[in-house]
Design goal:
about 475 residues; five-stranded mixed sheet; rod-shaped; HATPase_dom
Length: about 475
């Protein structure tokens, strides 16, 4: 909207940090080619309009915002004299965007010095030609460097995740192979024992009872509940004594298997009542094979389920076969990332999940949000040095979806807190970090999702908070996150 024209005072311009080094002639040119306008509360310009002017605050309070769906999400608010907005990159030889990237409004009557974009570019090139060349080189060079190093960082992260995933897959796969080999031995032993029972002096009724007990035993194994080490030890002692009392040799070797299956002396008494004393030991050992095969099949099922879950997590993490932009459940994304990073996080860090399961699904780029989670979780694990607590919390705050990562590390020093999202800034030793993880995360959250990323830190309590809109405008055209 248009403001109320007001006189331009070169002396007032000279008090602003942008113009304090200009000479009287330069200040006079600014006043002659620019203008001062007063705006009542409301919008000065809106996102998407042609970027025609460079605005400098002389007096008042401004609010910068980005549009998300039909809402404007506040990015910053300030009353500092001299802050600027609008066509800030008009000096570039090839402007990256000729439209305002956000909206500017004022909350109280406010005065601005306004310079047309063409004039702003002309005076910069005329008065500070070397500075403009340096800024252009910095801008375009930084873009290219960020893109190249960002791709390299993604490859390094992928390599690290691949190594971790391979390690995680190897454990259950090896367990399944071991259990399968042991199961083959047990089944062979069961066939041998079955032949001995068939040739033995078992009455038909006793065999029928034994088969019935075998079925109930298999069912009991499936229902077994874990015992504490002390409880398991006490029950093993009781079973070993029972075996000794019934003259069954090597009972101490059978007891742990029966305890793991949830069987006790009452169950053994039922077996003893079904057969005579001469055939009891053979029946017990036959049923021991049943217990072992059931336990081994449970182990194989657990291992293969773990492999399947890891593969599904990898697909969820990479968003394989899924649209880049979709309505997503952040909890699914968080869980897949935590599973993918389990090996890298290590056993010394305890993960606490405080999820608000009532939160709605949100429109997002899930693959890129997973990259944000990866960077923040990796930084937290690194800060804690392998020991501590990582709390992942979701909630509804400020009418946005909050994802918070809280670690118990030493914290981020106040003097560098304002720089941690800058490109190439890192506190890690040389060779361990590129300084682009948080920068990439910032641009994914802010630029791509129109959200916000904050950090609050003190020793023992560092919180990175990601705020995401519940609604979104049409998805942006495909672009690099780096």
């Amino acid at each position: 909207m248009s403001g109320q024209p007001m006189p331009c005072d070169a002396a007032e311009l000279s008090t602003l940090f942008l113009f304090e080094k200009l000479d009287p002639e330069q200040l006079g040119r600014l006043c002659s080619e620019g203008r001062v306008e007063k705006f009542e509360p409301g919008y000065v310009y809106e996102e998407g309009e042609p970027a025609t002017c460079f605005f400098v605050l002389l007096e008042g309070t401004l609010v910068m915002s980005r549009r998300v769906g039909e809402d404007d999400v506040e990015i910053s608010r300030t009353s500092q004299r001299g802050v600027y907005a609008g066509a800030m990159q008009a000096y570039l030889a090839v402007p990256d965007d000729a439209r305002y990237k956000g909206s500017l409004r004022v909350t109280v009557p406010s005065r601005f010095f306004i310079l047309p974009a063409e004039t702003f570019a002309a005076v910069l090139r005329e008065w500070f030609p070397m500075a403009v060349h340096l800024l252009e080189g910095l801008f375009f060079g930084s873009q290219n460097t960020q893109r190249t190093i960002g791709q390299r960082e993604r490859l390094l992260a992928l390599g690290s995740l691949s190594a971790g995933l391979t390690h995680e897959l190897n454990n259950p796969a090896a367990a399944a192979v071991r259990a399968t080999s042991a199961l083959r031995d047990r089944v062979a032993g069961m066939r041998h024992k079955l032949g001995m029972i068939a040739a033995g002096p078992y009455a038909r009724a006793a065999l029928e009872t034994l088969v019935e007990i075998q079925e109930r035993t298999a069912e009991q194994v499936a229902k077994a509940t874990p015992l504490s080490p002390l409880e398991a030890s006490d029950r093993e002692d009781a079973l070993a004594d029972w075996f000794d009392d019934h003259d069954i040799a090597g009972g101490w070797q059978l007891a742990p298997t029966f305890v793991q299956a949830g069987l006790d002396t009452d169950w053994l008494d039922q077996v003893a009542a079904a057969v005579d004393e001469g055939t009891l030991e053979g029946a017990i050992r036959w049923l021991n094979y049943t217990v072992e095969t059931e336990l081994l099949m449970n182990e194989i099922e657990d291992s293969t389920t773990r492999v399947s879950n890891l593969v599904n997590a990898a697909k969820q993490y990479s968003q394989l076969d899924r649209a880049p932009y979709q309505v997503a459940d952040v909890h699914e994304l968080l869980d897949s990332t935590l599973m993918m990073l389990a090996g890298k996080i290590g056993s010394g860090i305890r993960i606490v999940k405080e999820y608000d399961r009532e939160l709605p699904r949100i429109p997002a780029y899930p693959g890129e949000l997973n990259q944000v989670w990866t960077n923040l979780i990796d930084n937290a694990a690194s800060a804690m040095g392998g020991e501590g607590v990582l709390t992942v919390r979701t909630a509804l705050e400020r009418d946005q979806l909050l994802v918070e990562f809280r670690d118990t590390g030493p914290g981020v020093p106040e003097e560098i807190r304002g720089r941690i999202f800058d490109p190439f800034f890192t506190t890690k030793p040389v060779g361990e970090g590129t300084g682009l993880g948080l920068d990439i995360s910032w641009r994914i959250v802010v630029n791509k999702h129109h959200g916000h990323l904050e950090v609050h830190s003190e020793p023992g309590d560092t919180r990175f908070q990601v705020f995401l809109p519940l609604t979104a405008a049409e998805p942006d055209a495909p672009q690099e996150a780096s």
